[in-house]
Amino acid sequence: MSKQLVKNNLNVDTAKSFVYNVTNNAPYYIFAAKSGGDQTISTPVDTKLEDINIYDNLLFGKRIKSNDIKLSVKRYNWAANTVYDMYDDSVDLIDKRFYVSTDTGLEVRVYKCLFNNVAISSAGKSTVEPFGTSTESFITLSDGYVWKYMYSISKLEMNKFATIDYLPVIENLTVTTAAKPGTIDVIKIEKSGAGYDNYISGEFIKSSEIAVDGESLIYDILGGKSINKFYANCMIKISSSGPRNGQYRLIVDYRIDPITGKKLITLDQAFAITPLPGDSYEISPNVFIYDLSNTSTETCYARAIINSNTGNSVSKIEVLNPGLGYRKARAEINVDGTVGVSGNRLANVRPIISPDEGHGYDPTFELFAKYACVSGVFNGNTGPIIADNSFSTIGLLKEPLYANCELTIDTSTIKGEFLPGETISRYKPIKLSGNVQVFANTLVLGSNTSLVDSLRENDPVIITNGLINIFGLAQNINYYTIPNANSQLIQSVESFNISANVEELPFFEANCNIYLIDKTQFAECVEYDFPRLTLTNVNPVGFGESAYILGEESFATAKVSNNMPYLTVSGRSRNIDLPPAYLTTANNSSGDVSEFEVFNQLTRLVGRRVNSLSTFVPNESLIQNNGEATFHSFENVAEGPGDYLYVTNVINNINVNEVLSTNRDSDIQTQFNINEKYDGELVRDSGEILYIENVNTIQRRSTQTELVKLILEF
Question: What is the mean pLDDT of the chain?
Fold first, then answer.
């Protein structure tokens, strides 16, 4: 039998990994689905059938960029007269309200509570709103709370990422840089004790010299008990105003001069600024900190504040210096035996150590940012997103593949001929120095090369004679020796064998160029019609103009054209003549097909209505023989190949050059003659649906923008 614990940091780390993956690796999209909607909002279920239904009803989506996602934490708005939890290294804080947000009107600030004026078992109410952006912790005097400023959120970031329940985490380099590892900012009172009579407030004697016999460590004080050692191991703190204020020193001895009756204290070290006659001071019990791991690089100093109204019990621990580098510590109020505090009268106090790198160094872990907020905007009148009908489901789609893509390649760079059905990869070529000669036995010899230094076993290479290519893996990389012309001297050249997936190499020539390549699968070739490739299963990661592509079977290579439009998706590109609702504007990069930033999964039918006076009804059923679809929207195009009819949830198949008709009980039917058909831009069921949320039906308009926020918990 065992008992396990999944650490909160694992959840945070998973959230951070997800955000990193979204912004640096795989393509993720916020999508909208299901036009129409139901009167009641159903709860999504995690089933294969649910995913299929989502894809059948998928409308459009927008790719998430690095500025569209933020790690987030739970939101706790500061409110007066509220008891807040405090940071405690011995408490699981995951469900505690130990930080707050405040709104200045210009920005929102986040503060961590280091001390909540706890009195043994109960905490005080926060009555003063935390303020400022100091990198040091501070106390709100009226309520005794100690706060640490963490970061600020601009109004723009609030609008984009904040919700009623969650706040984004915004990096603050000033706070991070100022963080101090292993500090003890708070020492908590577990038991207040009683009888701590070794405290006093007083003044130094008003004479020309308050130090005894000029000794900077011995001072004559007024008042106090006439008992030797009574204030030994106490802390003295200067309370006068001016530059001497706040100085503290440890009293290592206290004695009554038997001749003069003076009350003398001896300090562990001299004050940095010598007190003046009449300066006031406070003597309090010292709180000694034991470094249990021997890791501290700066000592923590603290003193106990005594309450005379509760039997001289400890009411508060004031940390004078939080120290540095503590890993594990124990605190004890150090009193001399002459004071008479022992047994049940002893107080019990506990030091609270900061996170490893200090408060504010990493708010994602300190505040448990195990949430990610994905924020996307669906513009009603830009890009291929149709500004009609409605949607009632939103979600997150990972790594979908694009279909119906046409790629134009640079004719001057084509080597070989691409084959239908082969995998197309994009690659980065690294030209190696010198030239190589290829032999029929797959031996490759180098001339003025650095093959031994440049290649490793099974590195992929391309060798080209300028017209066609050999692609394979470099093996047996070595030096090759051949006799010279006189068969007397031995000449050494570099060599390797090429492992190629062909029965016979396409050429055996000298003076060939060789490239080391780094390749990634990009798409599948449907058709090659020089100089265009029709592609499907297109992976949009890292693709753009002037990219290099390779046919994995033909070994054909080429460079993508840098002339627009070099890529179209279902007939859509920046320069294609499509209606305004479907066409991105030239100055709006959000719809640039080359970057695969948006997709439209509606099936687009081009043709004409049989009766121009009849209309379609949103979300009604349309039929054609055994085929069926759901009407989404219609666009009348005065010029061009025809009107545009958009449908979703296609069942069986919708054929070109046939009529698609409404399925009404009445005799009045609306019909559409189909001349062209463009399926949705994604390969159906490709990628992973990671998140589904059913919402109240959102009606779309050309003048309307929908801001969608998804909160993902890890």
Answer: 89
Q: What share of the chain is helix, strand, coil (3-state, %, to 5)?
A: 10, 45, 45
CA distance 634 to 638: 13
Quote the tokens at residue 256. Answer: 């009554």
Handedness of CA 351, 352, 354, 359 (dihedral sign): negative
**Type of residue found at 24:** N
Written as one letter, the residue type at 559 is: K
- In eight-state DSSP terms, residue 29 is E
Tell which wins on pLDDT, 199 or 242. 199
- Give residue-wise pLDDT tens across range 203-256: 887 765 666 766 789 888 888 899 999 999 999 999 988 889 999 999 999 999
Query: What mean pLDDT is predicted for residues 383-400?
Result: 89
Query: Quick check: 50 and 393 in contact, CB under 8 A?
Result: no
- Cβ distance 100 to 84 under 8 Å? yes
Distance CA 374, CA 68 (A): 6
Q: 562, 585, 581: which is closest to 573 by C-alpha? A: 585
Asked whether the beta carbons of 330 and 292 are under 8 A apart, the reply is yes
Strand runs labelled E in 278-334: 280-291, 301-307, 313-321, 329-334
Per-residue pLDDT tens over the stretch 133-170: 999 999 888 899 999 999 999 999 999 999 999 999 99
Task: Express each pLDDT in 35-57 by its tens digit.
Answer: 987 778 889 999 999 999 999 99
d(CA 402, CA 396): 16
Task: Compute how many other C-beta atoms are within 10 angstroms of the C-beta atom of residue 490.
Answer: 9
User: Helix, strand, or coil here: 67?
Assistant: helix
Rounded Cα distance between 311 and 416, Å, is 96
Give dist(CA 20, CA 354) in Å, integer: 27
Half-sphere exposure of 59 (CA within 13 A, CB side): 27
pLDDT tens readout for residues 100-110: 999 999 999 99
Is 556 in a helix, a strand, or coil? coil
Tell me if the pTM is above 0.90. no
- Contact between residue 114 and residue 100 where contact means Cβ atoms under 8 Å apart: no
* pLDDT score at 347: 94
Domain boundaries, the chain: 76-161, 191-353, 405-569, 603-678
Average pLDDT over residues 536-559: 86
> What average pLDDT does this structure show over 528-536?
92
Task: Label each residue of 419-481 as H, E or C.
Answer: CCCCEEEEEEEEECCCEEEECCCCEEEEECCCHHHHCCCCEEEEEECCCCEEEEEEEEEEEEE
- Looking at the DSSP bridge assignments, the partners of residue 289 are 331
Which pLDDT band holds residue 595 (cuts at 50, 70, 90)? Answer: low
Bridge partners of 58, per DSSP, are 33
User: Count of CB atoms within 10 A of residue 361's CB?
Assistant: 18
Going by C-alpha positions, the residue among 57, 164, 87 that lies closest to residue 360 is: 87
pLDDT band at 381 (very low <50, low <70, confident <90, very high): low
Half-sphere exposure of 451 (CA within 13 A, CB side): 33
- Coil/strand/helix, residue 344: helix
Cβ–Cβ < 8 Å for 701, 156:
no
8 A C-beta contact, residue 92 and residue 85: no
